[in-house]
Design goal:
With 140 residues, the protein is of the alpha+beta class. It is built from three helices and nine strands, in the order βαβββαβββαββ. The two termini are 21 Å apart.
């Protein structure tokens, strides 16, 4: 899911949790106030909406097949965030903790590697697109 508004981690947990799962693992990536020795005043996420949604659904389906039984939910923000706000949330549930933790880790790693979501850091003295946050390694 690509979100314009703040992400509610409890809603994602509710989507994946259930009596068949003894473990729920959650990753919450937040906007930090410093990067590369510079003070970050805001982040901006630009998203290729349709492809990002399709990519996140495909990643979730892959992980659910790999970690049977498992359920996973992924949400990523678009737009401007201030330090402390959640940028991405991944929740994964499985019968045992090892599978839930690994499914969650795979979820965030694959989103970062494959989803067409670009991050721009805004500093007090300017702004820059962040490498490694774009499809195919190219900046927008």
């Amino acid at each position: 899911m690509i979100e314009n508004d703040p992400i509610d981690p409890a809603a994602l947990i509710a989507r994946v949790a259930g009596p068949d799962c003894g473990a729920v693992s959650v990753f919450i990536g937040t906007a930090r106030q410093a990067s590369g020795g510079r003070r970050v005043v805001a982040l901006e996420y630009d998203v290729y909406d349709t492809l990002a949604e399709e990519t996140c659904r495909a990643i979730a389906a892959e992980i659910e097949r790999e970690f049977v039984p498992c359920r996973i939910a992924i949400a990523h923000r678009r737009g401007r965030l201030v330090p402390g706000e959640s940028a991405v949330v991944v929740a994964a549930a499985a019968p045992h903790r090892a599978a839930a933790i690994e499914a969650c880790r795979q979820g965030i790693e694959r989103v970062k590697a494959r989803a067409p979501i670009w991050k721009k850091e805004h500093y007090e003295e300017g702004a820059a697109w962040v490498r490694g946050h774009s499809l195919g390694g190219e900046e927008p």
